[in-house]
């Protein structure tokens, strides 16, 4: 449920789920985290809440190299890129095709 709330940018629902114990670092079947979905959608208020709840800004999908920072950069959400960098996201990530965050940004 938290994954769906993050993907859709539903901050209030995400807050309720986090308050009831949902894991801010939960992963879906492909290994994508809640923060990756929020970053891909450009949902900064939700990203801030997830980071405050302990979401890992540098989580990596092992099979693809995908990270929240890559999700934001690929989607063109520069404000999200900035926020994730402020939160300590690693900048050396590259996707499965070898394209780095810096090239996407």
UniProtKB/TrEMBL annotation:
ANK repeats lie at residues 1-29, 30-62, 64-96. Coiled coil: none annotated. InterPro entries: Ankyrin_rpt, Ankyrin_rpt-contain_sf. It holds the Pfam family Ank_2. It comes from the Eukaryota. Gene3D superfamilies: Ankyrin repeat-containing domain (1.25.40.20). The keyword Metal-binding does not apply. Keywords: ANK repeat, Repeat. SMART domains: ANK. SUPFAM superfamilies: Ankyrin repeat (SSF48403). PANTHER family: ANKYRIN REPEAT DOMAIN-CONTAINING PROTEIN 39-RELATED. This is Ankyrin repeat domain-containing protein. It comes from Emiliania huxleyi (strain CCMP1516).
């Amino acid at each position: 449920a938290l994954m769906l709330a993050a993907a859709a940018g539903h901050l209030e629902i995400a807050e309720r789920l986090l308050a009831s114990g949902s894991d801010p670092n939960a992963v879906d079947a492909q290994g994508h985290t809640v923060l990756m979905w929020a970053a891909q959608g450009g949902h900064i208020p939700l990203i801030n809440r997830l980071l405050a709840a302990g979401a890992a800004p540098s989580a990596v999908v092992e099979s693809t190299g995908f990270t929240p920072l890559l999700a934001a950069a690929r989607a063109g959400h520069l404000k999200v890129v900035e926020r994730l960098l402020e939160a300590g996201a690693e900048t050396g990530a590259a996707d499965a095709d070898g394209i780095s965050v810096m090239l996407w940004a």
